[in-house]
Write a structure and sequence with these properties.
single chain; 797 residues; 5-stranded parallel β-sheet; elongated
Length: 797
């Protein structure tokens, strides 16, 4: 690097010579040298491996190497480092041999001074660098020569003989390089015009450069290639050479000829297309004029090119008048600056290549009207926007209809909301008194021992539960018809559901002396897409009807089959009286009991109507086949589902009733405004002396009591005089004092959406009035802190 000392390696075993060289280099003017000394050849190898040196001063007489072999070894080890030989006066012959072998020079010990030594070192370094540059330049030229996509001949300028050629000549002409070497250019086969080639050679020698275009050369396989031929004379050392470049333009000329042909064809097609467009423009004008909507053709500048008859009539102007105006200032929207601004913006979008469509208010036919307005850009042959088609359809009446539909939809939604609210109120108003009736009846049933009284209480319970079932069916049917029933459609195991429904109706079958038959097997278990709870409700209803309307000692059979179109069909068959053909149409009508309205069989005529609507809501269908005096078969068809992983069928979960180990006395706060319901709670909790009951008939009082006493559990009604249950629950959950107190909702509102809403708001459970006392006590056990029962899973073998 510039300014850095030159690194010199002195390989010398004679100490006086080492001192002499060191002192000579120090005396050298204008240069700095960093001297490294090695006494032996192998030490020199280590130095050359450890760092880079600019030059080596080498004595040929070393302890471990003698003579010319010393130089040869060192040069083989570091061929790029210049080597100067240090020789004595009586041994200059071997130094000259080293120079002939590649050493840069010989320095005679004893006669050299610092200046001569420094100059010799510098000349040696420069010669090696210059030689390396020449070698690199020659290598670069050779690479270009070998890889050029032009054919290149090198000729002797005196004789015209070819001395070299590159590989592309062979590729282009098909002749090997050996066929050309030593011959004159006009003596080789591809140059058929030998006389002309010789004349060109003489011209080249005179002028120093010649070039020819479109020279045909014949290749070895007889093809003709068209080339450009350029020759130059230049000096190489003390002699002149000629470089001939041959560039293949065959493909270019073919492409130019093809382009000329294509241009001629294109010009002809353009002329033909121009004529066609002229005709098409006439046809377009006729087409636009015949349209029943407002339609115009507009240039990118907004100039009207075509205005159809409807647009003219809508404007109230003559064709001559309107053709002189600009589209953006059109009479249809000039009355309103905002409308005009939107039209201008839409036209700008169309000119950017985007189709535009929207509804707009315009003035046409002497009145305001709403149109569906569209602007479609059409490109010309060059790809630029040639014109825009603007079209407007009168949708005034359609918009009025849509507005009316929107209003009707809003009224329907409000009516549906009112219906849902009515169902919620009805559920509450009907269930609340039943809660007291059934609750106190259950307490009486547990307390009385007199047989006659117990029978009377049983009649009350039976009648109350029948009334509760009727209320449930009426409300269920109303919910389905209102579309407010929430269904969870998922793959279910049909056999499990059949077994469950079957077991629930066995007591009823036993009372009626009806034999139950199940023909389903556990092989290829069927799965269907349905709401498990609702499908079980349907199956229980069908089985109950098959038992109730059967003959004494009859049979009820349930089974399943695979239907077409990937469906599962569940069949319930009875041996009853059957259904007359004329009654089939009324079978699924609410409150219609056919010929059984005057019979002693209990029923409301709602079960089948509700079942059909539930099956329809699950995407299935229910149908019946019946023969009078033989019996009926009701079938439920549902979409089949892929099987899901099931627990082993013999896994049984058994609830172990714990021996209660209460931690102390507990307080329950009941926020309830119905006196009879509070009295029922007091009567129930008399059997739990460890629980004390606080009550509040207003929400605000209940909140105060909750903060003051922090009860262990809160029972919350939803309909209170001063606040809603949802408001009370929210305030309980937002208070630091009451946030952790569990809250059970006790309400007669059994709508699914209401239950989900309260549980999501923070209630731990939701108890629907009227409730079973045992279930209520179980909920208390789950929430109050005592030793919990342990679910035990026992696998039966």
């Amino acid at each position: 690097m510039l300014g850095e000392p030159l690194q010199v390696l002195l390989v010398e075993d004679n100490a006086p010579d080492v001192i002499f060289v060191s002192e000579a280099l120090k005396e050298a003017p204008g240069s700095e040298f960093q001297l490294t000394h090695a006494k032996r050849l192998h030490e020199a190898f280590r130095c050359l491996q450890a760092q880079e040196f600019d030059v080596v001063l080498l004595d040929l007489g070393l302890p471990d190497s003698q003579g010319l072999d010393t130089f040869i070894q060192l040069q083989a080890h570091s061929p790029k480092v210049p080597i100067l030989i240090l020789s004595s006066l009586d041994n200059d012959g071997i130094g000259l041999k080293a120079v002939m072998a590649g050493a840069q020079d010989v320095l005679v010990k004893g006669v050299m001074n610092g200046r001569a030594l420094a100059l010799t070192i510098r000349y040696a370094i420069e010669r090696v660098r210059a030689s390396a540059d020449v070698t690199a330049s020659e290598a670069s030229f050779r690479r270009l020569f070998e890889t050029s996509q032009d054919g290149i001949f090198i000729l002797d300028a005196k004789t015209g003989q070819i001395t070299d050629s590159n590989p592309f000549v062979e590729k282009l002409l098909g002749h090997s390089v050996d066929e050309f070497i030593g011959k004159r250019l006009w003596e080789i086969a591809p140059f058929r015009e030998r006389a002309a080639s010789h004349v060109a050679f003489l011209t080249l020698r005179e002028k120093g450069r010649i070039s020819y275009h479109d020279i045909p050369l014949r290749t070895r396989d007889g093809h003709t290639v068209t080339v450009e031929f350029v020759s130059n004379i230049y000096d190489v050392g003390d002699k002149q050479v000629i470089q001939c470049n041959i560039h293949d333009i065959t493909a270019r000329r073919s492409a130019e000829a093809e382009l000329h042909r294509v241009n001629e064809e294109l010009e002809q097609k353009v002329n033909e297309r121009t004529h066609e467009l002229s005709l098409a423009n006439v046809e377009l004008q006729e087409f636009i004029d015949a349209m029943s909507t407002l339609a115009v053709k507009v240039s990118p500048d907004g100039e009207f090119l075509i205005v159809n008859r409807v647009a003219l009539e809508a404007s109230g102007l003559s064709r001559e008048h309107i053709m002189k105006t600009n589209f953006l200032e059109g009479v249809w929207w000039a009355f309103d600056p905002e409308v005009q601004s939107r039209v201008k913006q839409s036209f700008k979008q169309a000119l950017s290549g985007e189709s535009v469509n929207y509804n707009e208010r315009i003035f046409a036919f002497g009145r305001a009207m709403t149109i569906n307005f569209s602007l479609v850009p059409v490109r010309d042959a060059s790809g630029a926007i040639g014109y825009v088609i603007a079209e407007g359809s009168d949708i005034t009446e359609l918009m009025k209809t849509e507005t009316a539909l929107h209003q009707a939809k809003g009224e329907a939604e409000r009516a549906n909301l009112a219906k849902s609210e009515f169902l919620s109120r009805m559920s509450h108003e009907l269930r609340t008194p039943l809660n007291a009736i059934l609750g106190f009846s259950q307490i009486l049933d547990m307390e009385v021992s007199d047989t006659r009284l117990k029978e009377s209480v049983g009649h009350i319970l039976k009648g109350g539960r029948h009334l509760l079932g009727l209320i449930n069916e009426v409300l269920d049917l109303a919910r389905v018809e209102a579309g407010s029933t929430d269904l969870s459609i998922e793959p279910i195991d049909v056999l499990d559901l059949i077994h469950e429904a079957f077991s629930l109706v066995k007591p009823l079958a036993g009372d009626q002396d009806i034999r139950l038959l199940e023909i389903a097997t556990c092989e290829n278990r069927p799965f269907a897409m349905a709401d498990a709870q609702r499908l079980k409700q349907v199956l229980i209803n069908l089985l109950s009807n098959a038992i109730k309307y059967n003959r004494q000692g009859g049979e009820v059979e349930i089974g399943w089959s695979t239907a077409s179109n990937n469906h599962i069909c569940i069949h319930v068959r009875d041996t009853g009286l059957g259904i007359r053909q004329e009654d089939m149409g009324k079978l699924f009508t609410p409150f219609e009991r056919l010929s059984y309205s005057h019979s002693t069989i209990q029923g409301t005529g709602l079960g089948l109507a509700l079942s059909k609507r539930l099956v329809d809501a699950m995407g299935g269908r229910i149908f019946v086949a019946s023969t009078p005096n033989m019996g009926s078969t009701f079938s439920v068809e549902l979409s089949a589902a892929k099987p899901i992983q099931l627990m082993p069928i013999n896994a049984v979960v058994e609830y172990i009733e714990p021996a209660r180990e209460f931690e102390g006395l507990y307080t329950i706060l009941a926020i309830e405004d119905n006196v009879s319901n509070l009295r029922l709670l007091e009567a129930i909790l008399e059997r739990r002396p460890e629980i004390s009951l606080l009550s509040a008939m207003q929400g605000s009082v209940g909140l105060d009591l909750a903060v003051q006493f922090t009860p262990d559990l809160i029972l919350l009604d939803l309909n209170l005089p001063d606040m809603t249950g949802m408001q009370i629950l929210a305030r309980l959950r937002n208070s630091e004092v009451t946030r952790s107190i569990p809250v059970i909702i006790v309400s007669a509102d059994a709508t699914t959406s209401q239950i989900e809403r309260l549980l999501h708001a923070g209630a731990v459970d939701y108890l629907t009035k009227p409730f079973e006392i045992q279930h209520f006590l179980k909920l208390l056990d789950d929430q109050l802190p005592h030793t919990q029962a342990t679910p035990v899973v026992e696998v039966l073998s």
